[in-house]
Design brief:
By secondary structure, the protein is an alpha/beta fold. 22% of the residues lie in helices and 28% in strands. This is Glucose-1-phosphate adenylyltransferase.
Length: 409
Protein backbone atom coordinates (compact mmCIF):
# COMPACT_ATOMS: atom_id res chain seq x y z
CA UNK A 1 0.00 0.00 0.00
CA UNK A 2 2.44 2.66 1.18
CA UNK A 3 5.16 1.82 -1.33
CA UNK A 4 3.03 2.94 -4.32
CA UNK A 5 2.02 6.13 -2.54
CA UNK A 6 5.61 7.30 -2.25
CA UNK A 7 6.77 6.67 -5.82
CA UNK A 8 6.59 10.40 -6.55
CA UNK A 9 7.92 11.56 -3.16
CA UNK A 10 11.31 12.39 -1.67
CA UNK A 11 12.08 12.64 2.03
CA UNK A 12 14.20 15.25 3.80
CA UNK A 13 15.35 14.09 7.23
CA UNK A 14 16.71 16.89 9.42
CA UNK A 15 19.61 15.47 11.45
CA UNK A 16 21.96 18.38 12.07
CA UNK A 17 20.76 19.28 15.54
CA UNK A 18 23.38 20.27 18.09
CA UNK A 19 21.40 18.91 21.02
CA UNK A 20 22.92 21.28 23.58
CA UNK A 21 20.40 20.24 26.25
CA UNK A 22 21.70 16.67 25.96
CA UNK A 23 25.25 17.58 26.91
CA UNK A 24 27.57 15.83 27.62
CA UNK A 25 26.01 13.02 25.52
CA UNK A 26 26.27 15.30 22.48
CA UNK A 27 29.82 16.51 23.13
CA UNK A 28 31.18 14.24 20.39
CA UNK A 29 28.04 13.25 18.47
CA UNK A 30 24.96 14.75 16.85
CA UNK A 31 21.70 14.40 18.73
CA UNK A 32 20.17 11.89 16.25
CA UNK A 33 23.26 9.70 16.74
CA UNK A 34 22.86 9.34 20.52
CA UNK A 35 22.41 5.66 21.54
CA UNK A 36 18.98 4.59 22.74
CA UNK A 37 17.48 1.51 24.36
CA UNK A 38 20.72 -0.43 24.65
CA UNK A 39 20.84 -1.16 20.93
CA UNK A 40 19.64 1.65 18.69
CA UNK A 41 20.49 5.23 17.73
CA UNK A 42 17.73 7.83 17.99
CA UNK A 43 17.65 8.29 14.21
CA UNK A 44 16.90 4.58 13.70
CA UNK A 45 13.26 5.12 14.66
CA UNK A 46 12.56 7.70 11.96
CA UNK A 47 14.52 5.76 9.33
CA UNK A 48 12.69 2.54 10.25
CA UNK A 49 9.40 4.39 9.78
CA UNK A 50 10.60 5.43 6.33
CA UNK A 51 11.62 1.89 5.46
CA UNK A 52 8.33 0.30 6.51
CA UNK A 53 6.22 3.12 5.03
CA UNK A 54 7.75 2.56 1.59
CA UNK A 55 9.85 5.72 1.38
CA UNK A 56 12.86 4.84 -0.76
CA UNK A 57 14.50 8.23 -1.36
CA UNK A 58 15.84 9.87 1.79
CA UNK A 59 18.20 12.85 2.08
CA UNK A 60 19.67 13.11 5.59
CA UNK A 61 20.78 16.69 6.24
CA UNK A 62 23.69 16.60 8.68
CA UNK A 63 25.78 19.36 10.21
CA UNK A 64 26.88 19.25 13.86
CA UNK A 65 29.62 16.68 14.67
CA UNK A 66 28.20 14.29 12.12
CA UNK A 67 31.08 11.80 11.74
CA UNK A 68 29.69 9.05 14.01
CA UNK A 69 26.20 9.58 12.59
CA UNK A 70 27.47 9.19 9.03
CA UNK A 71 29.34 6.02 10.00
CA UNK A 72 26.12 4.65 11.47
CA UNK A 73 24.20 5.50 8.29
CA UNK A 74 26.83 3.63 6.29
CA UNK A 75 26.92 0.60 8.60
CA UNK A 76 23.20 0.24 9.31
CA UNK A 77 21.38 1.90 6.43
CA UNK A 78 23.21 1.04 3.20
CA UNK A 79 20.23 -1.12 2.30
CA UNK A 80 18.53 0.50 -0.70
CA UNK A 81 19.29 -0.17 -4.36
CA UNK A 82 20.73 2.86 -6.21
CA UNK A 83 20.10 1.05 -9.49
CA UNK A 84 16.38 1.37 -8.77
CA UNK A 85 16.68 5.02 -7.78
CA UNK A 86 16.61 4.25 -4.06
CA UNK A 87 18.93 5.87 -1.53
CA UNK A 88 19.56 7.07 2.01
CA UNK A 89 22.16 9.78 1.48
CA UNK A 90 23.88 12.01 4.04
CA UNK A 91 24.04 15.61 2.83
CA UNK A 92 26.39 17.91 4.78
CA UNK A 93 26.14 21.69 4.34
CA UNK A 94 27.35 22.59 0.86
CA UNK A 95 26.86 26.38 0.96
CA UNK A 96 25.19 26.31 -2.45
CA UNK A 97 23.17 29.45 -1.74
CA UNK A 98 25.72 31.45 0.26
CA UNK A 99 28.63 31.20 2.64
CA UNK A 100 26.76 30.23 5.82
CA UNK A 101 25.94 27.00 7.62
CA UNK A 102 22.30 26.03 8.04
CA UNK A 103 20.55 28.90 9.82
CA UNK A 104 17.32 27.07 10.65
CA UNK A 105 15.16 24.15 9.57
CA UNK A 106 13.73 26.02 6.57
CA UNK A 107 17.13 27.34 5.53
CA UNK A 108 18.62 23.84 5.67
CA UNK A 109 16.13 22.68 3.07
CA UNK A 110 16.41 25.88 1.02
CA UNK A 111 20.16 25.35 0.71
CA UNK A 112 19.41 21.95 -0.84
CA UNK A 113 16.48 23.03 -2.97
CA UNK A 114 18.36 21.96 -6.10
CA UNK A 115 18.20 18.33 -4.89
CA UNK A 116 14.44 18.57 -4.57
CA UNK A 117 13.96 20.14 -7.97
CA UNK A 118 16.18 17.60 -9.70
CA UNK A 119 14.47 14.65 -7.96
CA UNK A 120 11.33 14.89 -10.09
CA UNK A 121 9.26 14.43 -6.94
CA UNK A 122 5.78 15.89 -6.59
CA UNK A 123 5.71 15.69 -2.81
CA UNK A 124 8.28 16.22 -0.06
CA UNK A 125 8.12 14.49 3.32
CA UNK A 126 10.01 16.46 5.99
CA UNK A 127 11.00 14.61 9.15
CA UNK A 128 13.16 15.11 12.21
CA UNK A 129 15.80 12.58 13.21
CA UNK A 130 15.61 13.14 16.96
CA UNK A 131 12.24 11.76 18.09
CA UNK A 132 11.27 8.31 19.36
CA UNK A 133 8.07 6.93 17.79
CA UNK A 134 6.63 4.51 15.23
CA UNK A 135 4.42 5.82 12.44
CA UNK A 136 3.22 4.77 8.99
CA UNK A 137 3.74 7.88 6.88
CA UNK A 138 1.67 6.24 4.15
CA UNK A 139 -1.49 6.76 6.20
CA UNK A 140 -0.62 10.44 6.50
CA UNK A 141 0.00 10.74 2.76
CA UNK A 142 -3.36 9.12 2.03
CA UNK A 143 -4.95 11.74 4.29
CA UNK A 144 -2.98 14.47 2.48
CA UNK A 145 -4.27 13.31 -0.89
CA UNK A 146 -7.84 12.82 0.32
CA UNK A 147 -8.06 16.42 1.57
CA UNK A 148 -6.17 17.81 -1.46
CA UNK A 149 -3.76 19.53 0.90
CA UNK A 150 -0.90 21.80 -0.08
CA UNK A 151 0.72 21.02 3.25
CA UNK A 152 -0.10 18.43 5.92
CA UNK A 153 1.13 18.73 9.48
CA UNK A 154 1.15 15.76 11.86
CA UNK A 155 -0.13 16.65 15.30
CA UNK A 156 -0.91 15.02 18.61
CA UNK A 157 -2.65 15.79 21.87
CA UNK A 158 -0.42 16.98 24.72
CA UNK A 159 -1.37 18.01 28.28
CA UNK A 160 -2.08 21.72 28.44
CA UNK A 161 0.58 22.26 31.13
CA UNK A 162 3.25 20.90 28.74
CA UNK A 163 1.97 22.62 25.60
CA UNK A 164 4.16 25.73 25.79
CA UNK A 165 7.12 23.59 24.68
CA UNK A 166 5.50 22.87 21.31
CA UNK A 167 4.02 24.56 18.28
CA UNK A 168 0.28 24.59 19.02
CA UNK A 169 -2.35 24.19 16.31
CA UNK A 170 -6.06 24.73 15.99
CA UNK A 171 -7.94 22.76 13.33
CA UNK A 172 -11.55 22.98 12.19
CA UNK A 173 -14.04 20.20 11.43
CA UNK A 174 -12.61 19.86 7.90
CA UNK A 175 -9.13 19.16 9.37
CA UNK A 176 -7.86 22.52 8.13
CA UNK A 177 -5.27 24.26 10.30
CA UNK A 178 -6.72 27.69 11.07
CA UNK A 179 -4.20 28.83 13.68
CA UNK A 180 -0.61 28.00 14.61
CA UNK A 181 1.60 29.48 17.32
CA UNK A 182 5.14 28.38 18.09
CA UNK A 183 5.74 27.70 21.82
CA UNK A 184 3.04 30.05 23.14
CA UNK A 185 3.06 31.24 26.74
CA UNK A 186 -0.69 30.66 26.95
CA UNK A 187 -1.46 27.76 24.60
CA UNK A 188 -4.95 27.31 23.22
CA UNK A 189 -6.74 24.19 24.40
CA UNK A 190 -8.65 21.83 22.13
CA UNK A 191 -12.40 22.39 21.70
CA UNK A 192 -14.31 20.59 24.45
CA UNK A 193 -11.01 19.26 25.86
CA UNK A 194 -9.64 21.93 28.15
CA UNK A 195 -6.93 19.67 29.55
CA UNK A 196 -5.22 19.14 26.18
CA UNK A 197 -3.73 21.13 23.31
CA UNK A 198 -2.93 20.01 19.78
CA UNK A 199 0.82 20.08 19.17
CA UNK A 200 2.80 19.89 15.94
CA UNK A 201 5.13 16.88 15.73
CA UNK A 202 7.48 18.49 13.21
CA UNK A 203 6.33 16.05 10.52
CA UNK A 204 5.25 17.66 7.23
CA UNK A 205 4.13 16.60 3.77
CA UNK A 206 4.41 19.38 1.18
CA UNK A 207 3.41 19.56 -2.42
CA UNK A 208 6.78 20.43 -3.90
CA UNK A 209 5.63 23.60 -5.67
CA UNK A 210 4.23 24.92 -2.38
CA UNK A 211 7.47 24.16 -0.56
CA UNK A 212 9.80 25.66 -3.16
CA UNK A 213 7.74 28.85 -3.37
CA UNK A 214 7.52 29.22 0.43
CA UNK A 215 11.24 28.66 0.96
CA UNK A 216 12.20 31.07 -1.82
CA UNK A 217 10.06 33.81 -0.30
CA UNK A 218 11.35 33.08 3.19
CA UNK A 219 14.94 33.38 1.99
CA UNK A 220 14.25 36.91 0.79
CA UNK A 221 12.81 37.99 4.15
CA UNK A 222 15.60 39.62 6.22
CA UNK A 223 13.49 39.37 9.39
CA UNK A 224 12.88 35.63 9.13
CA UNK A 225 14.48 33.14 11.51
CA UNK A 226 14.11 30.53 8.72
CA UNK A 227 12.18 28.14 10.91
CA UNK A 228 9.16 26.12 9.80
CA UNK A 229 7.18 26.64 12.98
CA UNK A 230 7.94 30.31 13.43
CA UNK A 231 7.99 31.53 9.84
CA UNK A 232 6.70 29.11 7.19
CA UNK A 233 3.55 27.61 8.73
CA UNK A 234 1.87 30.83 9.96
CA UNK A 235 2.09 32.36 6.47
CA UNK A 236 0.91 29.28 4.57
CA UNK A 237 -2.13 28.91 6.82
CA UNK A 238 -3.36 32.24 5.48
CA UNK A 239 -2.88 31.41 1.81
CA UNK A 240 -2.95 27.63 1.29
CA UNK A 241 -4.87 24.50 2.20
CA UNK A 242 -2.96 23.41 5.30
CA UNK A 243 -4.36 20.23 6.86
CA UNK A 244 -3.75 18.63 10.24
CA UNK A 245 -3.22 14.88 10.52
CA UNK A 246 -3.78 13.63 14.06
CA UNK A 247 -1.31 10.96 15.17
CA UNK A 248 -2.55 8.06 17.25
CA UNK A 249 -5.58 6.92 15.33
CA UNK A 250 -5.42 4.36 12.56
CA UNK A 251 -1.73 4.31 11.61
CA UNK A 252 -1.87 2.08 8.57
CA UNK A 253 0.24 -1.04 9.01
CA UNK A 254 1.84 -0.16 12.35
CA UNK A 255 0.06 -0.93 15.61
CA UNK A 256 -1.04 2.46 17.02
CA UNK A 257 0.73 2.65 20.38
CA UNK A 258 0.39 6.48 20.30
CA UNK A 259 3.92 6.90 21.64
CA UNK A 260 5.97 9.92 20.57
CA UNK A 261 8.76 11.48 22.61
CA UNK A 262 11.03 14.44 22.06
CA UNK A 263 14.19 13.28 23.83
CA UNK A 264 15.83 16.68 23.78
CA UNK A 265 16.83 16.86 27.45
CA UNK A 266 18.68 14.48 29.73
CA UNK A 267 15.53 13.88 31.78
CA UNK A 268 13.24 13.24 28.79
CA UNK A 269 15.89 10.98 27.26
CA UNK A 270 16.27 9.04 30.52
CA UNK A 271 12.50 8.69 30.96
CA UNK A 272 12.03 7.41 27.39
CA UNK A 273 14.65 4.74 27.98
CA UNK A 274 13.03 3.74 31.26
CA UNK A 275 9.68 3.43 29.43
CA UNK A 276 11.15 0.38 27.70
CA UNK A 277 11.40 -1.33 31.10
CA UNK A 278 7.75 -0.89 32.02
CA UNK A 279 5.79 -4.15 32.55
CA UNK A 280 3.85 -3.21 29.40
CA UNK A 281 6.10 -0.78 27.51
CA UNK A 282 4.14 2.08 25.89
CA UNK A 283 6.39 1.78 22.81
CA UNK A 284 5.90 -1.51 20.97
CA UNK A 285 9.30 -2.75 19.78
CA UNK A 286 7.99 -6.26 19.21
CA UNK A 287 5.71 -5.92 16.18
CA UNK A 288 7.39 -8.37 13.82
CA UNK A 289 6.23 -6.52 10.71
CA UNK A 290 7.61 -3.19 12.01
CA UNK A 291 11.05 -3.88 13.54
CA UNK A 292 13.39 -1.01 14.38
CA UNK A 293 16.47 -1.50 12.22
CA UNK A 294 19.99 -0.71 13.42
CA UNK A 295 23.61 -1.82 13.11
CA UNK A 296 24.41 -5.13 14.83
CA UNK A 297 28.03 -5.55 15.90
CA UNK A 298 29.69 -8.94 15.83
CA UNK A 299 29.42 -9.62 19.55
CA UNK A 300 29.13 -12.89 21.47
CA UNK A 301 25.94 -13.56 23.45
CA UNK A 302 25.35 -11.83 26.75
CA UNK A 303 26.34 -13.93 29.74
CA UNK A 304 25.23 -13.94 33.38
CA UNK A 305 27.79 -15.58 35.68
CA UNK A 306 27.13 -16.80 39.20
CA UNK A 307 30.53 -17.72 40.52
CA UNK A 308 29.45 -18.31 44.10
CA UNK A 309 26.72 -20.39 45.69
CA UNK A 310 25.50 -17.63 48.01
CA UNK A 311 23.56 -15.88 45.21
CA UNK A 312 25.17 -12.50 45.72
CA UNK A 313 23.83 -11.06 42.47
CA UNK A 314 20.42 -10.78 40.90
CA UNK A 315 18.92 -9.31 37.74
CA UNK A 316 15.44 -7.80 37.81
CA UNK A 317 13.72 -6.00 34.94
CA UNK A 318 16.73 -5.26 32.75
CA UNK A 319 17.86 -5.10 29.13
CA UNK A 320 21.25 -6.76 28.62
CA UNK A 321 23.09 -6.08 25.36
CA UNK A 322 25.05 -8.64 23.37
CA UNK A 323 28.62 -9.25 24.45
CA UNK A 324 27.89 -8.09 27.99
CA UNK A 325 28.97 -10.02 31.05
CA UNK A 326 27.44 -9.71 34.52
CA UNK A 327 29.41 -11.48 37.25
CA UNK A 328 27.76 -11.91 40.65
CA UNK A 329 26.28 -8.41 40.37
CA UNK A 330 22.86 -6.88 40.89
CA UNK A 331 21.08 -5.17 37.97
CA UNK A 332 17.69 -3.58 38.71
CA UNK A 333 15.56 -1.65 36.19
CA UNK A 334 18.55 -0.80 34.00
CA UNK A 335 19.71 -0.96 30.39
CA UNK A 336 23.13 -2.38 29.53
CA UNK A 337 24.32 -1.89 25.96
CA UNK A 338 26.83 -4.10 24.13
CA UNK A 339 30.12 -5.22 25.66
CA UNK A 340 29.47 -4.05 29.20
CA UNK A 341 31.24 -5.88 32.04
CA UNK A 342 29.81 -5.67 35.54
CA UNK A 343 32.07 -7.19 38.16
CA UNK A 344 31.47 -8.88 41.50
CA UNK A 345 29.16 -7.26 44.06
CA UNK A 346 28.49 -4.23 41.85
CA UNK A 347 24.99 -2.78 42.12
CA UNK A 348 23.31 -0.95 39.22
CA UNK A 349 19.82 0.48 39.61
CA UNK A 350 17.69 2.71 37.34
CA UNK A 351 20.62 3.40 35.04
CA UNK A 352 21.58 3.38 31.36
CA UNK A 353 25.01 2.01 30.47
CA UNK A 354 26.40 2.59 26.97
CA UNK A 355 28.78 0.30 25.01
CA UNK A 356 32.20 -0.79 26.22
CA UNK A 357 31.84 0.13 29.89
CA UNK A 358 33.54 -1.63 32.81
CA UNK A 359 31.91 -1.47 36.23
CA UNK A 360 34.38 -2.26 38.99
CA UNK A 361 33.74 -4.74 41.77
CA UNK A 362 31.64 -3.32 44.59
CA UNK A 363 30.70 -0.16 42.68
CA UNK A 364 27.19 1.26 43.17
CA UNK A 365 25.32 3.26 40.50
CA UNK A 366 21.82 4.67 40.72
CA UNK A 367 19.96 7.08 38.40
CA UNK A 368 22.94 7.28 36.04
CA UNK A 369 23.68 7.51 32.35
CA UNK A 370 27.17 6.20 31.62
CA UNK A 371 28.60 7.06 28.19
CA UNK A 372 30.87 4.83 26.10
CA UNK A 373 34.36 3.65 27.00
CA UNK A 374 34.06 4.38 30.72
CA UNK A 375 35.76 2.50 33.52
CA UNK A 376 34.07 2.85 36.91
CA UNK A 377 36.64 2.13 39.65
CA UNK A 378 36.04 -0.52 42.28
CA UNK A 379 33.66 0.53 45.08
CA UNK A 380 32.94 3.93 43.50
CA UNK A 381 29.48 5.21 44.47
CA UNK A 382 27.52 7.41 42.02
CA UNK A 383 23.95 8.61 42.33
CA UNK A 384 23.53 8.41 46.09
CA UNK A 385 24.94 11.79 47.11
CA UNK A 386 23.78 14.45 44.65
CA UNK A 387 25.95 17.18 46.16
CA UNK A 388 29.05 15.04 45.73
CA UNK A 389 27.95 13.93 42.24
CA UNK A 390 27.59 17.53 41.11
CA UNK A 391 31.25 18.17 41.86
CA UNK A 392 32.35 15.46 39.42
CA UNK A 393 29.63 15.02 36.81
CA UNK A 394 26.73 16.66 34.97
CA UNK A 395 23.54 16.52 37.02
CA UNK A 396 20.15 16.94 35.33
CA UNK A 397 17.21 18.90 36.71
CA UNK A 398 15.68 15.67 38.03
CA UNK A 399 18.95 14.43 39.50
CA UNK A 400 20.15 12.08 36.76
CA UNK A 401 23.95 11.78 36.81
CA UNK A 402 25.75 11.68 33.45
CA UNK A 403 29.20 10.09 33.44
CA UNK A 404 31.01 11.39 30.32
CA UNK A 405 32.68 9.37 27.61
CA UNK A 406 36.17 8.14 28.54
CA UNK A 407 35.85 8.70 32.28
CA UNK A 408 38.27 6.55 34.28
CA UNK A 409 40.33 5.48 31.27
Amino acid sequence: MSGNLFEDAVCILLAGGKGSRLQPLTTDRAKPGVPFGGKYRIIDFTLSNCLHSGIRRVLVLTQYKSHSLQLHLCDAWSIFNPGLGEYITAVPPQMRTGDSWYKGTADAIYQNICLLESSGAKKVVILSGDHIYRMDYGAMLEHHNEFEADLSVACMQVPIDEASAFGIMTINEQSQVIQFEEKPENPACMPNQTEFALASMGIYIFNIDTLVDALSKDNLNPLSSHDFGKDILPLLIKSHNVVGYEFGGSEGRVTPDRYWRDVGTIDSYFDANMDLLSPQPPLNLYQKSWPIRTYHGQHPPARIITAHDNEQGKIKNAIIGSGSMVIDATIIKSILSANVRVNENAHIESSIIFDHVQIGAGAKLRDCIVDKHVQIPERMIIGYDKEEDAKRFTLSKNGIVVVPKGFGQ
